[in-house]
Amino acid sequence: MGGQRNMSAARLTPAGASKKRRRAGEPRPVDERLTPAMRQTLEAGLSRLRGRPVRIQNLRRQFSMGSSSFPTERLRVSLKSEKRPLLVFFKDLNPNHQMEKARAVRALDLEPGRRELQMYETILSPERFGTLHLYGYRWEPERDRFWAFFEDGGRTVLHNYLDMPRWTAAARWAARFHAATRGLPDTQTRFLPRYNEAHYQRCAERVEQLLPHLEGPEHDLVARGLECFAERIEWLSALPQCVLHGQYFGKNILLRRGKQGPKVAVIDWETAALGPGTFDLVSLTAGKWTSDERDAMRRAYSEQYEAETGRRIEQAAFREELACVALYQALEWLAWWGPHRALSRHFGNFLRELATLLEDDFAAGVSRTVEVA
Questions:
Q1: Whole-number Å distance between alpha carbons of 352 and 346
Q2: Positive or negative CA dihedral for 247, 249, 251, 252?
């Protein structure tokens, strides 16, 4: 895809569905001095994408109040010889420009932004997966510019809905994506981190570092979860791998209009990795769902995966894998939010998630010997 770069340097609760989500309270002024460079970058990217010269007549910029980790803008672009404006979503991937809350919890690291661009260039496909077009980017460490220009996928986010057909559609999308990315060559995926034994061991170490800061029931709960997890690291490391989104929550899933109902468009691929596909399904189904609702999403996933691969999923093994992966996910997020628990309710949410897992799935122990499909 088109771009200018020098890359060598360098939903826990579906609540809120009946309301509009609160907007971020950190508006930022648009720096019009950057507009000429943005226009040049977008023209170059669109020209390469379309295979012919593209010229921009007018570019209108508006800061997006939905910006969470990075500053984003919605652009209205008038192209020469075209009547309809092109709607573009701009993302500033410079870690030094992160939003205030993100700066408090995220490292100043260029790698996640670079990984997202690599996902769009090497794996994601609007035609095959319905993901957004990457129109262009600029990656210039010497100028401190790390920009990405995407197709604007709209403002309709799955997180704001509770009806099951939308959520099961997202589960089916994940199954199709995981099935399609199971056997990609190393040359196509080498930039992705892997959920291997070292990865899981690092998680265990972070949880160990968190334990001295917890007291009473919280300490006992997390310690018990860590003990169960440590026993399963080798088993988790041996699970079949595919490309993961890494944070497959409703807030990262757009719903777009389609002839046969809403179409899924997955965004924010900074946490993409190679690991068990069930990790994304665990993310999608986390939170205050009923057992029937969670089962509906799991069933949609397994049915679609079987249809895509022609391989039958053995349900007992499938549920065992989901339980073990959910245990890892809960501990991973607890280690992440532990030092910043005052900034978010997520720490308490994942404590409850861990307590439910230990009570429902690990009270009598999990065998870890069933072969997972």
A1: 10
A2: positive
Please state, in angstroms and as integers, the Cα–Cα distance from residue 132 to each residue in 216, 276, 300, 335, following that order: 47, 24, 24, 32
Residues 158, 17: Cα–Cα separation, whole Å: 9
CB count, 10 Å around CB of 1? 16
Does any domain span residue 372?
Answer: no
Q: Which pLDDT value is given to residue 15? A: 36
Where helices occur in the chain by DSSP H, the ranges are 35-50, 100-105, 111-122, 126-129, 164-180, 186-189, 197-210, 216-230, 233-237, 278-285, 291-309, 315-337, 346-360
| Whole-number pLDDT of residue 9 | 36
In a domain, 156, yes or no: no
By the 10 Å C-beta count (0-12 exposed, 13-18 middle, 19+ buried), 19 is classed as exposed
**What pLDDT digit, counting tens, does each position of 71-89 carry?**
999 999 999 989 999 999 9
- Closest residue by Cα to residue 138 from 166, 102, 163, 113: 113
d(CA 89, CA 111): 21
| Domain range enclosing 271 | 162-360
368 lies in some domain? no
Same domain assignment for residues 291 and 350: yes
Contacts of 141 by beta carbon, 8 Å cutoff, 6+ apart: 6, 9, 10, 110
pTM of the model: 0.89
Examine the pLDDT at 6 and tell me if it is beyond 90.
Answer: no
320 in the same domain as 194: yes
| 34 pLDDT more than 60 | yes
Q: What is the pLDDT of residue 370?
A: 34
How far is it, in rounded angstroms, from Cα 234 to Cα 292? Answer: 31
Question: What is the domain count for the chain?
Answer: 2
